[in-house]
Amino acid sequence: MSGIGARPNDHVVRSQFVASLDDQSRDWELVLRESHHRMKNTLTLLGASVRRDFTRAGRGDVSMAVDRLERRIVAFGRLYQLLSDNDDPSMVSVAPFFENLCGALSEAVLEPAGIRCEAAIESGNLPAAQCHRLALMLTELVTNAAKHAFPNKSGALIRVDLADRHGAWLCTVADNGIGATAPLQGTGSRILEGLARSIHAKLHGEAGQGGTRVTIAVPAAV
C-alpha cells in the first residue's frame, strides 16, 4: 500500500476496541439504519454525477449520457444485491465476493467521480454474517472517501486490501486524498461502530498528508 494512506507518524484519528452486541433487535435496527443511510448517500452521488453529465453533454452527447446513467443504475442494483443478500447461513468465499463488491463500487460510485480503485483480496472464507457486515462497513468507508477526500484533486485513488493475518481478517481502506482532520462523525460513524460491535471487530484510523487509512480487524471466528 505504498504511496497512499497515512504515514507512520501521522495523527491517529480513530483507534478503538469494540465489544459484543447481544441485543438482536438493536442489531437488526442497526442494519436497517445503515441501509437507509447508504441509500441516501449513494443516491446523492448518483444525482451529482447525472447533473454533471447532462450539464456537459451537447445535443449529440445526450444518448451517451443516458447510456452512462443506465450503466450506473445497473451497477447500483448489483451493489445493493450484494449488500442485502445476507440470508445464507453458510460460509462465503472472500475473494470473489469482495472483488465483485469492489467492482460494483468502482462502477457505481468511483469511476463517475474520476476516482481509481485498486483491490487486493486474499482467498479464504468467512461466515456469511461477518462477511456481509464487513461489506457494509467497507462500502461506508469507500463512499465516505469518495465524498470528502478529493476536493479538486487529480490522481485520486482508493485502495482496498483484505487479508487473513494471524487469525484475523484485516480490511484496510486507504485513499491518497487530503486527509481527515477529525474522527468520523455523525450517522456514518455510529453505524460503523455498531456494525463493528456486532462482529466483535476493532477499528483503527490514521490520517495525514498521505491521505486517510482505516483498518477493520475481524476475528476469524466469533
TrEMBL record:
Stored Pfam families: HATPase_c_2, HisKA_2
Keywords tagged on the record: ATP-binding, Kinase, Nucleotide-binding, Phosphoprotein, Transferase
Keyword Phosphoprotein found: yes
Domain Histidine kinase/HSP90-like ATPase: from-to ranges: 129-222
Protease found in the keyword field: no
InterPro entries: HATPase_C_sf, HATPase_dom, Sig_transdc_His_kin_sub2_dim/P
EC numbers, comma separated: 2.7.13.3
Substrates-to-products reaction catalysed: ATP + protein L-histidine = ADP + protein N-phospho-L-histidine
Gene Ontology molecular functions: ATP binding; protein histidine kinase activity
Designated name of the protein: histidine kinase
